[in-house]
Write a structure and sequence with these properties.
Length: about 140
């Protein structure tokens, strides 16, 4: 199971709950926190969904192998016009990570595969998505 956690205004409390109730499928949605809190969340096994509205500094604090694209963003952004459009984010991550967009996209898919596998969610995904993940 995957759990999307929203922590706006309550980062410390969310981290405390994560520590008290460990789970292999935590995804912190648009996680804006200090570098120390990001490191703590990563140590608790969290993944981080990111979008183009987040600062380079916020994204750069997150371990690359724990970053996922936020596919429900944006409703009104000029960088991506429809939910699920991740090309602008892939370009941005490529710049931050010193790779190209295809490399950033591949890393995001690897991260999703790792999360889905370790959390057991892979067993609940559609066969088409599972097929894509198994090719990564």
């Amino acid at each position: 199971m995957l759990l999307s956690l929203h922590s706006t205004g309550r980062v410390r409390e969310v981290l405390d709950v994560m520590a008290t109730y460990p789970h292999p499928g935590f995804i912190l949605h648009w996680f804006l926190a200090s570098a120390e809190e990001v490191a703590h969340a990563a140590a608790l096994g969290a993944y981080f969904s990111v979008n183009t509205a987040m600062s380079d500094e916020a994204i750069s604090q997150m371990p690359r192998d724990r970053v996922l694209p936020e596919t429900d963003f944006p409703a009104k952004s000029v960088r991506a016009r429809v939910p699920g459009a991740t090309a602008a984010l892939e370009d941005r991550l490529a710049t931050l990570w010193g790779t190209d967009a295809a490399g950033a996209r591949a890393e995001l898919w690897r991260n999703m595969k790792a999360l889905a596998t370790r959390s057991g969610a892979v067993e609940r995904l559609s066969s088409s998505l599972t097929g894509v993940l198994m090719q990564v």
